[in-house]
Amino acid sequence: MAKARVTMEVGNDSVAVITIFNPPVNALAIPILAGLKEKYDEAMRRNDVRAIVLTGEGGRFSGGFDINVFEKVHKTGDISLLPDVSVDLLVNRIEDAKKPSVAAIEGLALGGGLELALGCHARISTPKAQLGLPELTLGIIPGFGGTQRLPRLVGLKKAIEMMLLSKSMTSDEGNKLGLIDAIVCAEDLLKVSRLWALNIAERHKPWTRSLHKADKIGSPPEALEILRISRQQAKQTARNMPQHQACLDVIEAGVLNGGYHGVLKEAKVFKELVQSDTSKALVHVFFSQRITSKVPGVTDVGLKSRHVKKVAVIGGGLMGSGIATALILGNFHVILKEINAEYLLKGMKTIEGNVRGLVTRGKLAHEEAEKALSMLKGVSDYSEFKDVDMVIEAVVENVSLKQTIFRDIEEACPPHCILATNTSTINLDVIGGRTAQHRIVGAHFFSPAHVMPLLEIVRANKTSAQVILDLMTVGKAIKKVPVVVGNCTGFAVNRTFFPYTQAAHLLVNLGVDAFRIDRVISNFGLPVGPFQLQDLAGYGVAVAVKKQFADAFHDRIFLSPLVELLIKSGRNGKNNGKGYYTYEKGNKPKPDPSVLPIIEESRRLTNIMPGGKPISVSDEEILEMVLFPVVNEACRVIDDGIVVRASDLDIASILGMSFPSYRGGIVFWADNVGPSFIYRSLEKWSDLYGNFFKPSRFLEERAAKGIPLSAPSSTPSASRSRL
Ligand SMILES: C[C@H](O)CC(=O)SCCNC(=O)CCNC(=O)[C@H](O)C(C)(C)COP(=O)(O)OP(=O)(O)OC[C@H]1O[C@@H](n2cnc3c(N)ncnc32)[C@H](O)[C@@H]1OP(=O)(O)O
């Protein structure tokens, strides 16, 4: 690969074009920043340069500061690896220079990339460029002056929204708000930018130093009110994360004491946050998410994905209609099959509702919705299956029904057609039976399928690499993050998190309050606790899943009768408005005290409270007793080779189970807590409360040797891997 560099060319018009070259996103790596300083110094020195145009090679301005540097800081603890850019380059060399700069933006300008552009005296962009400051998603704040200059260009409210929600804007919107001075086609970008730069030099166009602008941030009382409201909102939406409040503090410093003061404070806070646990976790997530698309034996063997145009979805229930929605939104022709006209109509209506709901919430344009719906066709037999490229079966979790369907579709579909099942727990080898095994694959979506970002792609013994690659491509096209996993009961995510609900039930039967457990877990950062989650999923799912796991992992199951007792008493969770909580339209779910006698009945039946008395545990112990068994199962999943690498399980836990991303995922979090502590705790509880807590061999080994759970195994993976 060509070396990262910054070039400068001076034209006959006396404009120096400084270009960043660091594919694929022109990240601002240390040598790039050094190159920029050097070229700016040269441009200032040279008498034949009157103005500067700053741009990026290859259709992208810049994706921001090189995130690899943060990773290095996290690994070494050496904060001096971060260069001084904000004052040294942005303020001194660009903004306060005696020659004007114009940013010529194509494709994207994100993070430090946009901040470079903000330091310039004008910005010209191509249509549809993506402009944003997504630093908070990395646990940090903008560090090259973005917290100060963006509010001064687009207004405080908009800038706060862009930074706190990491929401980018298009050049069109930027143009309306004052971030972008002109929009031109890519062919004209440099020509117009050069002229613009010269016009600034000749004072025909304004020489704007955005750090010194004050007209868009309002009076201090107005600004402080906006900041107060934003702080309140961030308290609700960004619990347990320091960067949101820190960002608002830094903005406030600039509002009250001037932009330059704000820049200095920003630089200080930026460095502190880079060293925070949140940043370590979120940078880990950034790279781990990208590495999921590298699957040994699939993406490194020279295969090209085949073109999938038409997909059949079997089953128009909650999952099937969600999957069909995601597919039509991704521009795939979809055939939805149901067993009769009534069910079909219901499925089609759900899909329509999903799509129109996006329009109502402003997430989809009306025309896009109409186009998506035109890609959908409902059928009640297999006659239309003769030219489909992929089938995704999404019927109820019934083994014999699924086996029949797979026999039928093998006959009805063309030989190249991929045969996928959306089962969430059933072993693929059981479903497929004698079906052409190389074509069978698991396409495990998470509910609601058109919203949740994870697609677990399950590779059975004989699934071909081509089929995996094709499904990965389809997954990406419908904006999912595909994670390829091996075949076993529950696959990677549900298997890992099965002990989560089990542990919660065990604790309740030991006398701990169910609502307290839910509170502890949601304070930790999961959106809802295990009992509310059970309410949301419906108890039918809980019963079916328990059976699957009891069959597969009988050595570590806790059989609580509680869900069956709830069903017997006429409860079915959110579905019928009655679960552990009560559900009324427009109100938050409320703990239902009338569930307590049912819980008592369960305790009486299991009779596991030591001495018949509830155990006494702290909130911290509750958290550990629920999550350490999950870590324990994660260890088995890693040890069995169900995931390619431990970090895949981090991404799967975040995107499939809503494990808080700022804790880095289940394995990353466990390594932070310490395998040895987790091992000792599980061992203690297994002595007290039984086999459910028994530490796995993998955890025991790692704890004894002091090796992180995420470290690659020394055993050759080929002997163990199910992938
Ligand atoms: C001081 C400053 O305020 C601090 C900062 O600037 S922090 C950085 C802020 N910028 C960001 O957060 C943007 C991060 N990047 C992205 O969102 C996306 O990569 C993108 C929208 C730029 C491109 O997306 P897409 O085309 O799908 O490509 P994607 O697969 O994500 O990335 C391509 C490669 O570029 C790398 N990359 C992307 N942005 C990078 C960055 N800022 N630094 C280092 N590497 C980066 C990715 O790791 C990936 O590497 P790989 O091919 O080895 O896996």
From TrEMBL:
GO cellular component: peroxisome
Regions crossing the membrane: 15-36, 311-336
SUPFAM superfamilies in the cross-refs: 6-phosphogluconate dehydrogenase C-terminal domain-like (SSF48179), ClpP/crotonase (SSF52096), NAD(P)-binding Rossmann-fold domains (SSF51735)
Swiss-Prot/TrEMBL keywords: Fatty acid metabolism, Isomerase, Lipid metabolism, Lyase, Membrane, Multifunctional enzyme, NAD, Oxidoreductase, Peroxisome, Transmembrane, Transmembrane helix
Single GO BP term: fatty acid beta-oxidation
Subcellular location per the Swiss-Prot or TrEMBL entry: Peroxisome
Domain named 3-hydroxyacyl-CoA dehydrogenase C-terminal: residues: 490-583
Predominant location category: other
Entry similarity comment: In the central section; belongs to the 3-hydroxyacyl-CoA dehydrogenase family.
Entry protein name: 3-hydroxyacyl-CoA dehydrogenase
Origin species: Nepenthes gracilis (Slender pitcher plant)
